[in-house]
Amino acid sequence: MVDVRLPDLGEVDEVRLVAWCVAVGETVEAGAELVEVETEKATFVVEAEIAGRLVEACFAAGEPVPADAVLGRIEVHEG
Amino acid sequence: MKDRIEHVPLGRIDYVAALAAQRCAHACRSRGEIRDLVLTAEHDPVLTVGRSGSLDDLLVSPEQLREEGIPVHRVERGGGITYHGPGQLVVYPILDLKERGLDLRRYVRLLEDAMLATARAFGVRARRDERRPGAWVGSRKLASVGIHVRRWVTLHGFALNVDARRDHFAMIRPCGEAIEIVSLSDLTVRTPSMLEAERAALDALSAALGDPIEEGEASWLAATSH
Q1: A-interface mutation test, from B48, B51, B74, B156, most A Cβ less than 10 A away
Q2: What is the rounded CA–CA span in Å between residue B53 and residue B80?
Q3: Which pLDDT value is given to residue B175?
Q4: Which of B143, B152, B92, B52 is nearest to A41 (CA)?
Q5: Beta A42-47 vs B140-150: how paired, if at all?
Q6: Which fold would CATH assign to domain B5-224?
Q7: Active site residue ranges of B
Q8: Is pLDDT of B70 > 70?
Q9: Domain assignment of residue A14, given as a range
Q10: Please, are residues B183 and B51 in contact by the beta-carbon 8 Å criterion?
């Protein structure tokens, strides 16, 4: 299981989760667009670091997310 | 100096056509097929709603907008509702932030620096507001910023009021607030031409990025048109 986290966006304490690009239960390729967040006047798309299945989304659309939080979890493909 | 940046002047152009050009350029830049570039444009009247925007901030009815021929588009940039139209210079840098060692916050501040320097070129002293990104003259807004970043490559950018229509801005609460809008023409003896404003904005952006911005041949358009 791999945690989904925000990359370093700079001096950002908190973002707002705009939307998940994939639903819980869906599989993603490495580098696929996973979730979009917004901070002041800027939106940013977080990509999946690894291929697998999104098994948990810890925040819903519209919710505030601390910059260091785990956004979700990806179950890594076997083999 | 790191790299030359290509300038692609789109001129007076419909918002959707310019957005398509941005997305083409972004796709090419993301694949590493082209270098960083900057598109400039002046749009036909249009309202756009960013990710945190709401149609509640629209102060006129859809019927009125239809009569005026002003479309409304939801877009992926950050921020609320805004207006673009004649007399407003729009600057869309398509930059790879990773290659430039920039993060999201530093990039927004860099765009603010460029907006403030552009105003300064015409003798206008604008300032930033730590809580509300943009360029302000007193409590009035001279320029707005709103960006989108995917694959660490930027889309959208900033809009500077050179001699914009105040009555059109009155159709909205920009970014959800009761904000008074101001243009360079309200603050200068002689109204700068759009070309002068564009030149000043490109010079300011070039200085902020530390790279020359030069006229290009828009080779990315040919590469994506088939």
Answers
A1: B51
A2: 3
A3: 72
A4: B52
A5: parallel
A6: BirA Bifunctional Protein; domain 2 (3.30.930)
A7: 175
A8: yes
A9: 2-76
A10: no
Residue ranges for chain A with pLDDT beneath 70:
78-79
Question: Side-chain half-sphere of B121: how many Cα atoms within 13 Å?
Answer: 21
- Only one residue has tokens 């939801």, namely B74
Domain boundaries, chain B: 5-224
**Do the chains contact at A44 and B104, CB–CB below 8 Å?**
yes
Tell me the torsion sign for CA atoms B74, B186, B128, B122: positive
Reported confidence tier of residue B1, pLDDT bands at 50, 70, 90: very low
The string of pLDDT tens digits covering residues B110-130 is: 999 999 999 999 999 999 999
Q: Between B78, B106, B145, which is nearest A10 by CB?
A: B106
- Tell me which residue in A11, A12, A42 faces B147 most closely, judged by beta carbons: A42
Q: How confident is the model at residue B225 (pLDDT cuts 50, 70, 90)?
A: very low
Interface contact A33-B78, CB threshold 8 A: no
- The tally of domains found in chain A comes to 1
Chain A residue numbers touching B51 (CB-CB < 8 A): 18, 36, 38, 43
CA distance B35 to B206: 15
CATH code: domain of residue A66: 2.40.50.100
Token pair recorded at residue B132: 């509300």
Could you tell me which chain B residue has the CA closest to the CA of A36?
A: B150
- Look at residue B133 in the predicted model and tell me its pLDDT: 95
CA distance B42 to chain A (A): 21
Residues ≥6 apart with Cβ < 8 Å to B64: B171
Chain A residue with CA closest to B105: the answer is A10
Name which of A8, A38, A45 is nearest B150 (Cβ-Cβ).
Answer: A45
Judge: B104–A33 Cβ closer than 8 Å, yes or no. Answer: no
Contacts of B79 in chain A (CB under 8 A): 41
